[in-house]
Each structure stands twice: as structure tokens, then as C-alpha cells.
Amino acid sequence: MAFETPALPYAYNALEPAIDELTMQVHHDKHHVGYTTNLNNAVKGTEFENWDVVKILQNLSKVPESSRAAVRNNGGGHYNHTLFWQMMGPHKGGQPSGKLLDAVNAAFGSFDKFKEKFTQTATTRFGSGWAWLVVKKDKKLDVYSLPNQDNPVSEGDTPILGIDVWEHAYYLKYQNRRAEYIGNFYNVINWDTVAALYSKAQ
Fold first, then answer.
1. Contacts of 21 (CB under 8 A, 6+ apart)
2. Which of 24, 28, 191, 200 has the smallest number of Cβ neighbours within 10 A?
3. Average pLDDT value over all residues in the chain
């Protein structure tokens, strides 16, 4: 079964002013569709075309070396963006509550300190990549960045929040002002989705 790019769960302009309509159109319809298409091409005719994308990313060593880079990059791109659209939403933002907030406070000291670490991690990611809030194997939270389209599932961790800091995610609106884009990202985080992913990882 071929991988498919999911439709956005909201309108292209729903995240304005944090993320503009044109960026969402290009990001979803061009970049994400491109990753999905390239992933399908990379696994076509192999056993991996019937695997779940998470299983593929957890078992990259089993992918033949000749196609491993394409599967890693495009499989990661497809999965990362599928998560990314769900982690945001219109009229969201604020902060988590309940068990997720307790876990954030335990791991980072406070929500504000989490934001500081997440912001610094996203800001200082050299070149293209992502910053992630993950649930580690010991069920504790951590923040780190990965290059390109790599995903924490390949590291044995469970991603529950991520921000895309590739230039295609923000350059049309923000140009070189990555920090401003990251700051505005907090206004569209869908903490309900993040909390659900956290609960599933427990």
C-alpha cells in the first residue's frame, strides 16, 4: 500500500499570523508531497512498501544500503510532517496541563524553562533540521535536535512535539528571522495533541 500525504486538518491560512497561507501551501503541497512521493519510489517493489513508516524508521539498518539514504530522508520527511501538522492548530497555544505539565515541570523545572531550552535548541540547530520534545525509554521528557529529516523514533525515543527549522518552513514570511518564527510557533501548538501523544507513550 502506497504512503499518502494526509490533508491538512485546517485551512492553509488557519495558523496566521504565526505561519502564513503561502508557506503552508508550499510546505504541505510541495515539500510534504515530495517526501511522500520519493518514499514510495524508494520502497516500491520491496518488503518495506508494506511496512508502517515508524517501523521503517526504527529499522533503517535493515534497508539496503543502496536505498537507505533515500528511505531515511524521505521516510523521515513524510513522518515528521505528518506529525507537524497535527501538533499545531488555530486558536491554540498557551501551555499544557495535567500530567503533561507535571512531567514538563519535573524534567525542566517549569514550563518557562522548557520553552527556554526548546527555543535555544531550535535556534541553534545549524542548517536544516528539527527540534524535538521526546519521551525517552525511561518515560522522562527530553529536548534535543536532529539534522535534516531524522526522527527520534530512529533513536528509540517517542516524539511528542517538534518544530521544523528548515528554511522552507518559515523563509517566505520570516526570511532570516528564525528566532521570530520559533517564538510565534508557541501560539499555534496544539497541546491537546501533544498530551495525547505523551499519554500514548506511557
1. 12, 13
2. 200
3. 96
Using DSSP, state whether 200 is helix, strand or coil.
helix
Please give the grid coordinates belonging to residue 15: 495558523
Average pLDDT rounded to a whole number, residues 28-50: 95
| 105 and 76 within one domain | no
Note whether residue 91 is domain-resident: no
Q: What does the alpha-carbon distance between residue 28 and residue 34 come to, in Å, rounded to a whole number? A: 9
Question: Could you tell me if 162 and 83 are in contact, meaning their C-beta atoms sit under 8 angstroms apart?
Answer: yes
**CA–CA gap between residue 163 and residue 132 (Å, rounded):** 7
Comparing CA positions, the residue from 35, 44, 30 lying closest to residue 76 is 35
Residue 90: asked if its preceding bond is cis (omega within 30°), the reply is no
Q: Is residue 1's pLDDT more than 70?
A: no
Number of domains in the chain: 2
Please state the length of the chain: 202
Within 13 A of 30's CA, how many CA atoms are on the CB side?
8
Q: Among 38, 65, 86, identify where a domain stops.
A: 86
One domain, residues 76 and 166 = no
